[in-house]
Structures are given as C-alpha cells and as structure tokens.
Amino acid sequence: MYSDLNGKVAVVTGGSKGIGNAIAKRFGNEHMSVVINYHSDEAGAQKAADAVEAEGGRAVIVQADISTEEGAEALLKAAVDNFGGLDVWVNNAGMEIKSPTHESTLDDWKKVTAVDQTGVFLGSKTALNYFVANQKKGNIINMSSVHEQIPWPTFASYAAAKGSVKLFTKTIAMEYADRNIRVNGIGPGAINTPINAEKFADKKQYDKTVSMVPMNRIGTPEEVAAGAAWLASDESSYVTGITLFIDGGMTLYPAFKDGEG
Ligand code: BGC
Asked: Is residue 187 in some structural domain?
C-alpha cells in the first residue's frame, strides 16, 4: 500500500468491468475515494463500488458517456460534490472492433476513436482544467495498450487510437510538468478481461495468445491495477510521460526469442 494515497480522490472511467474495475478496487484498498464511471453496466459498477467500500475506501457510481464534454464534466462534479476535490484521473474506458480495414465502416471507426481517443482527451482536459484552476498537484493515467507500439491488423481503429494516446500522453506530460501535474500511460498486453472473454474461450486462440507472451501466461487485471496504484502514488514522483508496459514481455519481439533472425 502507498500511504500517500490514503484519502485521495480518483475518477476511474469504465470502472464497471475488467481493468477499470480492478483499479477501482485497488484504489479502495488504498483507502481512496473513487468515482466509478460506467456506460451501461450499472450492476457491475455497483459491485465495484461495494468492493471499494469493503476494502475501506469510499465510492459513488456515475453513468456517463466519456466521449462527451457533459460526460467528463459530470464525473468531475461527482468527485467535487461527493469527495471535495480531485487528485487522480484514470482514463481507462476503452473498446475495440475487429474488422478488415477495407471493410470497416466510418461508423465503427467513429465509435472506437470516440471512446479510445476523444474520451482520453476530454477526460484529461477536464482534470487538467480542475488542477490548473485550483493550482493543485494532479495525476492523470491514460490506459493505452501494447498496440500503441505493435501494429494490429484488423484492429486499425484501435491501434490508431492507442498510438494517438501515446503521443497525447507525452505531449500533455510535457505541457504540464512544471505545474506539478504528472501524466503517464499504461500499456497492458493480453489480460484476462471481458474484452477478451470470447477470444480466450476458444482454446486455440487462447494458446496462440499465450505463445505471444514471453512469460507464457495471460495477465490479470490486478497486475495492471498495481501499476496504476504506483503511478498514482508519490512512489513514482519523478515519473512523467512514460508508458508502463504491463505485458509479460509481449512488446519484446517474442518472435526472436530463440535467437533466430
Ligand atoms: C487488447 C486485447 C489484446 C491485447 C494483446 C489489448 O490492448 O485490448 O484484446 O488481447 O491488447 O494483443
């Protein structure tokens, strides 16, 4: 546990399931107050809130579309009204649509980039505005992916959005570094979450994914949440503008692992 996190206020977008859910719980374990955003899964968000409180933190759930300014504003308002301020904002919500690029619809492209790219901009902007206006130390964590670095055929909209998140994170990290605001990304690899449930239910696909991970296993949402807690805490006080890959080595060019090439 990181003692400086005790009593801090966090917003976690997409907190009803998967990695966001694990981050909310971990923040609860750190005795933080957490605004858990959800889009449609109210029951999942409520379960996450109960878990946060069981861990010793406080929580409220807020339905909001984080690809809209009103949505992002509603989350900030919930943090201020319920918990008196904001310290940490995690842009976690994300989605992916598989489709060969030449067949992809503009509508699907817009759906993915609205959440994965525009949502990160709006969440960051809202948090930055609050930190700057209140001359407050701040911390922003953007959920990226190994696919900010690794091209991903048939997921071009997702990879494009994550590539954008990478440079957006670095850019605003630099822009606000001298105002005591740190901004970092996390790049998870293959993690056991609902986004992968269908794929991992198929043993062939599961084994194929495992074979692409040097550590030979799928990661857990809790392993990603541990990185988020570290980045949110003062233990990482001199870290800004990085992507912390939590991927079992997936970004290490596993095809070269036997010294061939
Ligand atoms: C995606 C997963 C995928 C993983 C590794 C993540 O960003 O959300 O669906 O398994 O990257 O390819």
From this structure: yes
